[in-house]
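Operator note (shift B, R.M.): manual run for ATP-dependent helicase HrpB requested after the automated queue skipped it. Running by hand, logging everything below so the morning shift can see what happened. Input copied straight from the record, untouched. If output looks odd, do not overwrite the archive copy; leave it for review.
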Amino acid sequence: MKETSFDFPAQAIVAPLCQALAQTDAIVAAPPGAGKSTVLPLALLSHFPDKRIVLMQPRRVVVRNLALFLASQLGEEVGQKVGYRIRGENRVSEHTRLEIITEGILSRRIEHDPELSGVDIVIFDEFHERSIHSDYGLALALEVQQGLRDDLRLVVMSATLDTQAVARLLPAARVLSSEGKMYPVEEVYTGQVAPRMLHQKVADYTALACTNHSGDVLVFLPGAGAINKVTQLLTAKRLPGVVIHSLYGALDKATQQLALDKDPQGRQKIILATNIAETSLTIANIAVVVDSGLENIAQFHPASGLTQLQTQMISQASATQRKGRAGRLGPGICYRLWAKEQQDRLARYSTPQILREDSSMLYLSALGWGTTVGQLALLDKPGSAQLSAARSLLLRIGAIDNQQRITPYGRKLVNLPCHPRLAHMLLQAQQYPGAAAASLLHAGVWIAALSEDTTGQTDGLTAHDVLSNLQGHLRSRLQQQAKRYWGVLRQSGELCAPAELAPDDIAAVIALAYDDLIAYRTGEGQWKMANGKGADMPGSTYLGPWLTVLKGQQIDNQVYIRLAQPVNVETLKQLFPHYFSTTTEVNYHTGEQRMQARKVSRFQQISLLSEPVGSMSAEQIGKAWYDYLLTLNPTDWPLDDTAKQWLHRLQLAATLNLPQPQAFDTPPPWPAQGNPLTIISAQQLVAKLGRCKKRSELAKLPWVNMLHQALPWSQQHALDTYLPTSIMVPSGFDRPLVYQPDGQVILAVKMQEMFGSTDPLFVGQGRQPVTLSLLSPAGRPLQMTADLGQFWQGSYQQIKKEMKGRYPKHPWPDDPTSAPATTRTKRAMR
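Run finished. Output pasted below as returned.
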């Protein structure tokens, strides 16, 4: 083994790591340049000669290059002691003891072999990137370890890692840290750059770096589109002795390798890369980093079922990783295209993928494993909206039942290595009756491959156009994936060329995968999708009235169709007869403030035809009003004041949990919320609502009687007894109590009616004070108080001075506590 592989700080933790793994798991925190990805796997290979090790990396290009480097350190070819496996490609043999894989491969291996046979140590490298696959893979590995393989050892490694969080999942693990090996890197902040000027500024600073420095320049950009634009700008500058390379995941192996290696002609290199170059990759001769500070991330929108690729500022952890690339070989410089004060405002870590992407595959995979997402040992778990969208999709395609249990069909879907949508499409195409199945399946595997391609490098509005004109590496990559699915489905014969696919077959398989995105034209370039969302697709009018949508994007609140295929309505009726319906719908007409009936023909949530219907039954009207009220907050209901007062009293009764002495047994709980729909039976309410033609008539219904009678007798009695609608005041008259939404109880009464009294008033079995709104003889508010005795001794004297002259006919005694309460004038009292 070459000694150069150990000239890294990570060598210092080799011995404690080997000691730890003899007994337990390990968590390794090592900053950029420590050599953890190279030193530690080879050290474990040497220390444990009888063990087999799996090393997970987040990216395909890293897997290939790391395997090549580690094998070279052993003086061997890849596929001997060190091999690799990625989707559609593997270089392993019976001699392989260190296998480097992409993250998704581990979880599928465990699902097919729960004992993880032939694997002794699993290393999760660059775990800070927090992909769904790495999180899920670690969760499954922990279950294997705890349930079947207590001899299995797990190592979690990262350059920027919250070790405390990981330690909660692996409480027995030994935490080890290494120093980094990085030369000083000067940070140059350029100030905030306007988005429209970003590409030009990146090109300018890159050219400046080439002029002022002799080493190669690594430029970080958010995606392939930005890389292409900056490439054009730099090419126009005609920099002497400089060669420009691109580096991102969709490029072929040869192009990626050219970017990673030293230039054979000794020219200065500019490498325009996405965050694929942040970690693990060995890139020769980098002296300068130009960092745009941006990255593209996928954000799933559960309401539309679409994913938005949005550009955002990177985290502090990513900024540290990128900067570190300039300090591997010697002192370097990092140009950051943002303001220095903005650096401290960056998020500490990037949002984990599991919190922002579609969780349908994770949800179904967990059920297939025999557990649920909630029971998995995950650092973070998908939000309720993500899980709800996943459940809805899986239920619709028959992968789960109404009790959220996986179905036999769902288990077939789990066995296919793709998203449940695509797995469902492939199985439906394969099982299609008659001779059409073969042609549908040819289209299905090509569409599955095209759907998974995230490069966005497809030209044309229709999927048929794109597939018919595939060229170069893109065609090769999609063909490889299509053949993989062809083989997984155990199909015989040759896969047809993409140009031979029939447009109708392409449309049909897209519809099977994305039935909720089928779109109907509503205007020039405007469409309505089956999930109810509106969408834009400029220049698409000629495509016909119906589209199946393969790729869409949500930007803010607007949905855009990016790639689609026209479809005949007859095809949709054949595939989805149950989605077409004609019903009489009764809905509230805002302008007329009344219910209106229409005969409506629909495809899912797309209204195809709507025409008025002359008559409606009382039951139809009642149900329509009921549904309308469901959409309103109870505070917005058309209720009269008496009904609103009753609801406020009920809410106070629940807050005070008033006793119910008339209850025969254990008192029933008070309703938790004052929503009439939770109190009155739907059948009774629908019958009453069916008599109302207009909204204004709703307030005239006997709400208080219906509500009161709907309560158990014990609660009716307690409400009437402890929270009365009125109270007798010292003048001998009953005066109404006003119950407020916040629980406050107000008694508005003329001041003279309270003479002679100093005692506070209460309701609710003496637990809720009554606030007095003392009025003038003309009924105007003078004072609010809950302490009448203090009022008489205090502010009453000032009020008396002001009111005595204004209302001389009414009594204003010096001592109101001894004066008789009255509603009469002084003359009438004589």
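Quick read of the result: Residues 436-452 form the longest helix (17 residues). The chain has six domains: 3-177, 185-352, 358-414, 421-575, 634-722, 726-829.
Leaving this for review. - R.M.
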